[in-house]
Amino acid sequence: IWMNGGMIIERFHEFIVYILDNLDVNFPQCSFVFTIDNLNSHKNALILNEITNHGHHYVFHAPYWPVDGIIEYIFNTIQTRLKIFFNRLSTMDDLQNCINNIVGGFGSF
């Protein structure tokens, strides 16, 4: 978990290499398809080449639209509710507790 800064290409590359190395060890003769969103760091040639050089494939999600699926509903709800508590959040613990409360309130689907 990175506590400072957003997802940059170098961090995402490190993450993808970790996953690919794990797949190479645990599933040596298998090919996987990665579904990737349209974030610039995810669409970077370094990332895409890493995936294909390991013998896997990738496919991009359709552009974001909040009504497309349940995960979009969840992310939108978390974001909307976090905005309500924004001025009360001053530490990572505050943020984590707030997210836990929001997600805990979803119930089941």
Account of the 3D structure:
The chain has 109 residues and is mainly α. The protein is built from four helices and two strands, in the order H-E-H-E-H-H. It has helices at residues 9-26, 45-53, 70-85, 92-104; strands at residues 33-36, 57-60. Strands 1-2 form a two-stranded parallel ribbon. Helix 1 (9-26) packs parallel to helix 2 and helix 3 (70-85) packs across helix 4 (92-104).
Number of strand segments: 2
Radius of gyration, in angstroms, nearest whole number: 17 Å
Mean pLDDT across all amino acids: 84
Please give the largest β-sheet.
Answer: 2 strands, parallel
Observed structural traits:
single chain; two-stranded parallel ribbon; mainly alpha; 109 residues
Short description:
With 109 residues, the chain is mainly alpha-helical.
Task: List the topology elements.
Elements: H1 9-26, E1 33-36, H2 45-53, E2 57-60, H3 70-85, H4 92-104
Parallel strand pairs: 1-2
